Amino acid sequence: MKSFFVTLFTVLGGIFGCTSATDGFESINPDEFEQVIADSTVIRLDVRTAEEYADGHIAGTINIDVMGNDFEQKALAMLDKERTIALYCRSGRRSKRAARILVDNGFRVVELSKGFNSWADAGKPIEK
């Protein structure tokens, strides 16, 4: 029985420990995201589709679809590794994928935790 609990805690520790250690980016709420993007040196990145972007986005964002086969190539060509990247998608799932790709390529990243939906729900400004 003791060995079962030791194994269980080891596995859980590995799962949770590895997740926070390897992500390399911070997921933040809309108020925190708004504060981060108030800094003009931060690059704003929308990783949704062009259609979603056209329906409304945060002002001043660059749009690169993370689901496109060329996301990594475009990001490396368009983004400056010396600047922080503040990114979002619709609900937070795709942006976490994009954040991992960017972090793996040496970028500093913050991510809007629950995406554009949370931004809109918080009454933050939207541009069309």
Description:
The structure is a single chain. This protein is of the alpha/beta class and 128 residues long. It has a single domain (25-121), classed as Oxidized Rhodanese, domain 1 (3-Layer(aba) Sandwich). It is built from 6 helices and 5 strands; from the N terminus they run αβαβαβαβαβα. It has helices at 2-23, 30-37, 50-55, 71-78, 93-104, 115-121; strands at 26-28, 43-46, 61-63, 85-88, 109-112. A 5-stranded parallel sheet has the order 1-5-4-2-3. Strand 4, helix 5 (93-104) and strand 5 form a beta-alpha-beta unit. The radius of gyration is 17 Å and the shape is globular. The model is unreliable at 2-22 (pLDDT under 50).
Secondary structure elements and their pairing?
Blueprint: H1 2-23, E1 26-28, H2 30-37, E2 43-46, H3 50-55, E3 61-63, H4 71-78, E4 85-88, H5 93-104, E5 109-112, H6 115-121
Parallel strand pairs: 1-5, 2-3, 2-4, 4-5
Mean pLDDT: 88
Calculate the terminal CA-CA distance, rounded to whole Å: 60 Å
What is the architecture at the second tier of CATH?
3-Layer(aba) Sandwich
Question: How many helix segments?
Answer: 6
Q: State the total count of DSSP E strands.
A: 5
**What's the SSE pattern?**
HEHEHEHEHEH
- Helicity level: 40-55%
Q: Give the number of domains.
A: 1
CATH superfamily: Rhodanese-like domain
Strand content: 5-15%
Largest sheet: 5 strands, parallel
CATH top level is Alpha Beta
